């Protein structure tokens, strides 16, 4: 039996304490860096549409409104589109801050996921048509499939994913939404045959404000918050979300839901 060594014990305690503090300091540093990036991202995202709107309005005030009513009209439309973008950005920000601070509680109910998918398709069909993209439900079951979750929030998840498939899809393309029964879960997949995402960018697409191809994404428009919101909602359900993609071939986003037992 080895006798206690109070000096060695004390040394170990000090070492552990120092390790613990070092890791706490690291966490604080990371949080500070994160906040800095977050703020700089937000201000950048706001500046672009705001300055654009200001530019259009100033040109109109400088006489364009009388000189060329036709172009003036198109400037007003552009200003209005930029304001729309600002308003979507604010809505998304509001949403994500609520999700991150946990202010939002889920209201879990049993609902039919097939019906919800068909509803979302109907709501987005005309938007898809403007990009010449078709939306199809391709699940095996045409009957009701019951899951447990917050229906409104899952609707938001589906809308964000289908909306992305329209934004980043190719003209004349097809988006399919399928469901697959797992052991006690249902897997929902949204697949497009669009631009795809470079493999090196895949792990980052769920980060807030992350937009894969900057120039391409700027043209397409968006907040870079849609997938961060999706991830939050699915993780709040204690379920999983994932993505696989091949550039030039297409992308599949999948998420699971808890199967509701019994009918
Ligand atoms: P947003 O679409 O507003 O930029 P998201 O968080 O929804 O923000 O998406 C983040 C980025 O992931 C997008 O900017 C885009 O580069 C990429 N992305 C998302 N969905 C798709 C998709 N279906 N096909 C190709 N790229 C996608």
From TrEMBL:
Keyword Kinase: yes
One Gene Ontology cellular component annotation held by this UniProt entry: plasma membrane
GO MF, any single term: phosphoprotein phosphatase activity
GO BP term, pick one: cellular response to phosphate starvation
Catalytic activity entry: ATP + protein L-histidine = ADP + protein N-phospho-L-histidine
EC annotation from Swiss-Prot or TrEMBL: 2.7.13.3
Source species, domain of life: Bacteria
Ranges for domain Histidine kinase: 41-261
Keyword terms of this UniProt record: Kinase, Membrane, Phosphoprotein, Transferase, Transmembrane, Transmembrane helix, Two-component regulatory system
Name of the protein this chain belongs to: histidine kinase
Protein source organism: Sphingobacterium allocomposti
């Amino acid at each position: 039996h080895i006798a206690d060594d109070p000096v060695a014990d004390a040394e170990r305690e000090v070492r552990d304490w120092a390790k613990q503090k070092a890791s706490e300091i690291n966490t604080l540093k990371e949080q500070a860096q994160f906040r800095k990036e977050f703020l700089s991202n937000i201000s950048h995202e706001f500046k672009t549409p705001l300055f654009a709107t200001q530019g259009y309005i100033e040109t109109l005030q400088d006489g364009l409104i009388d000189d060329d009513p036709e172009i003036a009209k198109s400037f007003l439309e552009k200003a209005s589109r930029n304001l729309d973008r600002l308003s979507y950005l604010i809505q998304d920000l509001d949403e994500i801050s609520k999700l991150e601070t946990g202010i939002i509680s889920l209201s879990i109910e049993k609902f039919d996921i097939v019906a919800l998918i068909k509803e979302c398709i109907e709501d987005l069909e005309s938007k898809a048509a403007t990009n010449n993209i078709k939306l199809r439900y391709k699940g095996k079951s045409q009957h009701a499939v019951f899951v447990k979750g917050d229906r409104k929030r899952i609707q938001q998840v589906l809308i964000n994913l289908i909306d992305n498939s329209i934004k980043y899809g190719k003209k004349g393309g097809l988006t399919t939404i399928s469901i697959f029964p797992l052991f006690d879960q249902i897997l929902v997949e949204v697949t497009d045959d669009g631009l795809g995402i470079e493999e090196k960018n895949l792990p980052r697409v769920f980060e807030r404000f992350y937009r894969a191809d900057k120039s391409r994404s700027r043209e397409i428009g968006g907040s870079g918050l849609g997938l961060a919101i999706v991830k939050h909602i699915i993780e709040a359900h204690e379920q999983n979300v994932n993505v696989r993609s091949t550039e030039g071939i297409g992308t599949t986003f999948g998420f699971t839901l808890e199967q509701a037992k019994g009918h």
